[in-house]
Design brief:
The complex is a heterotrimer. By secondary structure, chain A is of the alpha/beta class. Chain A has 2 domains: about 180 residues, Rossmann fold; about 100 residues, no CATH class. Chain A has an 8-stranded mixed β-sheet, with helices on both faces. A 4-stranded antiparallel β-sheet of chain A has the order 2-1-4-5. The longest helix of chain A has 18 residues. Chain A is globular and about 70 Å long. Chain B is an alpha/beta fold. Chain B folds into 2 domains: about 220 residues, P-loop containing nucleotide triphosphate hydrolases (Rossmann fold), CATH 3.40.50.300; about 70 residues, no CATH class. Chain B has 13 helices and 12 strands. Chain B has an 8-stranded mixed β-sheet with strand order 6-7-8-3-9-10-12-11, sandwiched between helices. In chain B, strands 2-1-4-5 form a 4-stranded antiparallel β-sheet. In chain B, helix 4 packs across helix 5. Chain C is mainly alpha-helical. Chain C has 12 helices and no strands. The longest helix of chain C is centred in the last third of the chain and has 37 residues. Classes of the chains: A alpha/beta, B alpha/beta, C mainly alpha. At the A-C interface, strand 6, helix 3 and helix 5 of A face helix 8 and helix 9 of C. The complex binds adenosine-5'-triphosphate (ATP), adenosine-5'-diphosphate, iron/sulfur cluster (2 copies) and magnesium ion (2 copies). The site of one magnesium ion has 3 residues of chain B, from helix 1. The site of adenosine-5'-triphosphate has 13 residues of chain A, from strand 2 and helix 1. Chain A: This is ATP-binding cassette domain-containing protein.
């Protein structure tokens, strides 16, 4: 089918065992990712947002098969890759590449830029002659707007932003269909961040890349993305197209998250939802709705029954789903009906 | 008279490959009860400025020059004993990383009580009572139980609340907060900023808030100092700065952060970027420090460093082309 | 620049003077040594000892093994620079030759223990199943003090320099293996290793290209400490007669022979002990200097 998504994730789970006791047995589990599903179309950017420790990076690493999954399916371009043996998986890896947060630890300090970029090209057998390899390397440097003569230098000779460009070039070397950006701009300084955001947007248009953009910076996410998935404690609580999510969030957690972001406009009057307390531990996630310990609207049902993702009728955009029992109530009783985003953000 | 006056502060460090001029001629003042924000990118000298005020710079390799007058007294001439009496008492500080600035082997109550016993000579019992009171003030639930806990038993947000409690325990006149929310999640950041705003009204201390987040500045500051490469390039009341930035660096900075809600108002789809990199502080720059990245730079800029001029009442900027009234000439 | 030359309406900032004298940035080997005085001093002393050991045949004054009963236990003098021992042998010459044994044992143990430890540590850090077994064995070996282990091993064999090296190596391997395993485990978590896996790099290549080169810096530092500790262990073994055979002059042997007389003729023990101390100190200084120079975290914090 031609409209099949590029990447499809069904009920993905990743639980990390905690070893303890004298014999080092498993004493508990971290429910880092606990059954999430989403898909990404060709050329589309899906953002994954949420607070620290909610499982965003774990999703990224699980998709990349950097560790075995606990459960669930990952289907890339129509092929299931979650249960593939690593030898068959290796050529498939070309289609899905990654850019990490820390520009310092994401490049091997003892490899020259040339060798860093040549590694994926050689691994995937993309060039058959050294002249071709050279041409590809030069083209990569050009794509990420680095000077060609920088290719023989070592990572420590570059600034954070330049290193991030090298990291992006490495991700592009395999000519992927999908790039996972795990907080790829979060560690950068404001002025450099804008440079890298612009570069990523340009590359996406130019190469028709799909992107999984993992970030906790909601303003950047809104600027970059087509759709957003909001995570809380290992679960997705809301997925929506950009305008629909920022204009009319339908989940109490998304509402709180949006209202918490400080806005660079002094003196604006906005509606604030300040959450009480901290994110609970993913070792013992709360029963029922995982957000009920902090949700300002929680009621009895929330403490016993877990809400599921379901389409929202009065959403601004199509394909807006959210997991909250409030959606069973009438619009008059639902504090999240209508378009509320503008009041939270104090725009328009 | 201002509560704190920093005058031509220079803090340099001796490093193996040259002198690092981390702060090079920065002047500003803080009035009693006021919130002043210092913004700038990492490495521009914000933290060094804060540490210099409290004389926490290791000397050597560092060296401080200029004047820092607190209530009219120059702290750079104070003895170590006088400084110890001021730190944590009249001026206190909150750091970015709450875990590393708390002592892991002392209970929270002991750490709050310590400063009180040191500076105000309270008895052990009185100090503990006051510690409980402080924890209540910063909104930590079950304060009676929490005073007996150790820092690792608290979450990041609670640790930062404890840091604030310690900082406020002696009713300081000035609180210096160096990136107090940078390590925290947005929802926790919102809690802490809310707390700081609330406490400001109740406690009445002046605050120097150091941050790189323009959103945080807009929410809490009254006046803003913008730093770039060890210099102050602009200073203005918060509304003037955001509505009418005069220095090209500030303009670039404001243009490069997307605003939440941009998809609703259909604003620019591309961020304004400041090209290039921050210059090395180990090189002496003869002209304007921003000339290497400034879209309006001319030969004049690379030759002559612009003086800080008052462009509008209370609004100063160091740029040859930022006109006194009216838009940028270029 | 004076204000009179400025265009109208332009205000120049008051120029800032530097508040400390300029630092002369020095590049090259000399600059490196200046910035790392411990490496310079330690390295110089180690080189000096190597020089002594290598050129002992040209520096000695009398045959270190020739007996001269008539010239027993002479005080240091122009004839016997460091005095003579109970059999009339020249202590100066014996100490020079002793440097050969000490340095040979020190360097050989450092190299062998590092190589074997590196191999074991890499396997342990990469193969989970092997890890628990290997590490229990290493813990077992480590629970015996290394000197006792070396003595026990020497008791099973004939005294020779080769066997001394072997015995000390066995005792030192677990320490290296542990270190390497720790480093490997933390390197495996590095994003660049994840990126390499994601770009289809095979595990053996990951180990050789991405892990191994980054273990070398901590390994080098550890190797210097092992070298120093091996020299001490060798001296102890020889001193208690469980090490290098008595006919080969080694610092431990010389001290052992001078032990009975040390209250009346302290110089017999003093000179080999002095050389041993200086060498061990030098190697440790070198190790500390390397650690500071190679550990980017500590360097950055300054
Ligand atoms: N290897 C591991 N072993 C045990 N627990 C782990 C492991 N990796 C992650 N976790 C846990 O899983 C949860 C999710 O972690 P993850 O790194 O995915 O968070 P995140 O959303 O990316 O957070 P951040 O914004 O801080 O990067 C956390 O509680 C974390 O402590
Ligand atoms: N103890 C020190 N020794 C040498 N250089 C230092 C020291 N502390 C800070 N610096 C340098 O001073 C400059 C400004 O640092 P800092 O004030 O921490 O920046 P920020 O604005 O991010 O807070 C940086 O170049 C930093 O490397
Ligand atoms: S289900 Fe209940 S607790 Fe969960 S988000 Fe909705 S209202 Fe809040
Ligand atoms: S003085 Fe010149 S270079 Fe400096 S900010 Fe103004 S226009 Fe730009
Ligand atoms: Mg993460
Ligand atoms: Mg700082």
């Amino acid at each position: 089918m031609s409209t099949a998504p590029l990447l499809q994730v069904n009920d993905l789970k990743k639980h990390f065992p905690i070893h303890g006791g004298f014999f080092g047995g498993v004493t508990a589990k971290v429910y880092a990712v606990d059954g999430i599903s989403f898909d990404i179309a060709k050329g589309e950017t899906l953002s994954l947002v949420g607070e620290s420790g909610c499982g965003k990076s774990t999703v990224g690493k699980a998709l990349l098969r950097l560790f075995p999954l606990t459960d669930g399916q990952v289907i890339l371009g129509g092929t299931r890759i979650d249960d593939m043996p690593s030898s068959t998986l290796r050529p498939m890896r070309r289609r899905m590449q990654v850019v990490f947060q820390d520009p310092f630890s994401s490049l091997n300090p003892r490899m020259r830029v040339r060798d860093i970029l040549a590694e994926p090209i050689r691994n995937f057998g993309l060039s058959n002659s050294s002249a071709d390899l050279e041409a590809r390397l030069v083209a990569l440097m050009d794509k990420v707007r680095l000077p060609k003569d920088a290719i023989n230098r070592w990572p420590h000779e570059f600034s954070g932003g330049q290193r991030q460009r090298i990291g992006i070039a490495r991700a592009l070397a395999g000519e992927p269909d999908l790039i996972i950006c795990d907080e790829a701009v979060s560690a950068l300084d404001v002025s450099v961040k804008a440079q890298i955001v612009n570069l990523l947007q340009d590359l996406q248009k130019e190469l028709g890349l799909a992107m999984l953009f993992i970030s906790h910076d909601l303003a950047i996410v809104e600027h970059m993305t087509h759709r957003v998935a909001v995570m809380y404690l290992g679960k997705i609580v809301e997925v929506a197209p950009r305008r629909s999510l920022f204009g009319a969030p339908k989940h109490p957690y998304t509402e709180a998250l949006l209202s918490a972001v400080p806005q660079p406009t002094p003196g604006i009057q906005r509606q604030r939802v300040i959450l009480k307390g901290d994110v609970p531990s993913p070792i013992n996630p709360p029963k029922g709705c995982r957000f009920h310990t902090r949700c300002p609207y929680a009621f009895d049902r929330c403490r016993v029954e877990e809400p599921v993702l379901r389409p929202i009728a009065d959403a601004m955009g199509e394909g807006h789903v959210s997991a909250c029992h409030l959606h069973d109530r009438s619009a008059a009783e639902n504090p999240l009906s209508g378009a509320k985003g503008a009041a939270l953000l104090a725009v328009g | 008279m201002a509560l704190l006056e920093v005058d031509a502060l220079q803090t340099h460090f001796r490093t193996p490959d040259g002198i690092n001029r981390a702060v090079d001629g920065v002047s500003f003042h803080v009035n009693a009860g006021e919130t002043l924000a210092i913004v700038g990118e990492s490495g521009c000298g914000k933290s060094v400025t804060a540490m210099s005020i409290l004389r926490l710079i290791p000397e050597p390799p560092g060296k401080i020059a200029g004047a820092i007058r607190f209530n009219g007294k120059n702290l750079l001439e104070a003895t170590d004993k006088e400084m110890r009496a001021i730190r944590g008492n009249e001026i206190s500080m909150i750091f970015q990383e709450p875990m590393t600035s708390l002592n892991p082997v002392l209970t929270v109550g002991r750490q709050i009580g310590e400063t009180l016993r040191l500076h105000q000579g309270l008895s052990a019992q009185a100090a503990e009572d006051r510690a409980v009171e402080m924890l209540n003030l910063v909104g930590i639930p079950e304060a009676k139980r929490r005073v007996r806990e150790y820092p690792h038993q608290l979450s990041g947000g609670m640790r930062q609340r404890v840091m604030i409690a310690i900082a406020l325990a002696c009713n300081p006149k000035l609180l210096i907060a160096d990136e107090p929310t940078t390590a925290l999640d947005v929802t926790i950041q919102a809690q802490i900023l809310d707390l700081m705003r609330d406490l400001k009204h109740r406690v009445g201390a002046a605050i120097v808030l150091i941050t790189h987040d323009l959103g945080v500045v807009a929410e809490v500051a009254e006046r803003v100092v913008v730093m770039y490469a060890g210099k102050k390039v602009e200073e203005a009341p918060v509304h003037a700065l955001f509505n009418r930035p005069r220095h090209p660096y500030t303009q670039g900075l404001l243009g490069s952060v997307p605003k939440l809600g941009s998809s609703l108002t259909g604003e620019a789809t591309r961020l304004a970027e400041i090209p290039g990199l921050v210059p090395s502080l180990k090189q002496k720059i003869p002209g304007c420090v921003f000339a290497s990245r400034c879209p309006h730079a001319t030969d004049l800029c690379t030759a002559i460093a612009p003086a800080l001029e008052e462009k509008a009442p209370g609004h100063v900027a160091a740029c040859h082309y930022a006109l006194r009234e009216g838009a940028l000439a270029a | 620049m004076s204000t009179t030359t400025l265009p109208p309406g332009v205000n120049a900032a008051v120029p800032m003077q530097d508040i400390m004298p300029p630092v002369r940035a020095r590049g090259g080997a000399l600059g490196f040594l200046r910035r790392n005085p411990t490496i310079a001093i330690g390295g110089l002393l180690v080189l000096l000892m190597i020089f002594v050991a290598v050129f002992a045949p040209f520096l000695f004054t009398r045959d270190p093994t020739s007996l001269a009963p008539a010239l027993r236990t002479r005080e240091p003098s122009a004839q016997f620079w460091f005095g003579s021992d109970m059999l009339g042998r020249d202590i100066y010459s014996r100490v020079l030759y002793g440097a050969r044994v000490s340095l040979t044992v020190g360097f050989a143990v450092a190299i062998c223990a590092s190589a074997i430890g590196l191999f074991i540590g890499l396997i342990s850090g990469f193969i989970r199943v092997a890890d628990s077994i290997i590490m229990r064995i290493m813990d077992g070996i480590m629970s015996i003090p290394s000197i006792l282990l070396a003595i026990a091993l020497m008791a099973l064999t004939r005294g020779s320099v080769g066997n001394v090296i072997l015995a000390i190596t066995v005792a030192e391997v677990p320490r290296v293996a542990r270190l390497v395993r720790g480093v490997v485990l933390s390197l495996r978590e590095q994003p660049y290793v994840d990126a390499a896996v994601a770009s289809g790099t095979r595990t053996p290549v990951i180990i050789i290209r991405h892990i191994l080169p980054n273990t070398l810096a901590p390994m080098t530092v550890q190797a210097t400490y092992i070298c120093a500790s091996a020299m001490i262990t060798e001296a102890i073994l020889s001193f208690i007669g469980a090490g290098t055979p008595p006919i080969i002059p080694s610092w431990g042997n010389i001290m052992a022979e001078g032990r009975a007389l040390w209250q009346v003729k302290p110089y017999i023990v003093f000179f080999p002990a002095l050389f041993l101390s200086i060498t061990v100190l030098a190697v440790n200084l070198l190790g500390d200097g390397l650690r500071d120079a190679l550990d980017p975290r500590m360097a950055k914090r300054l």
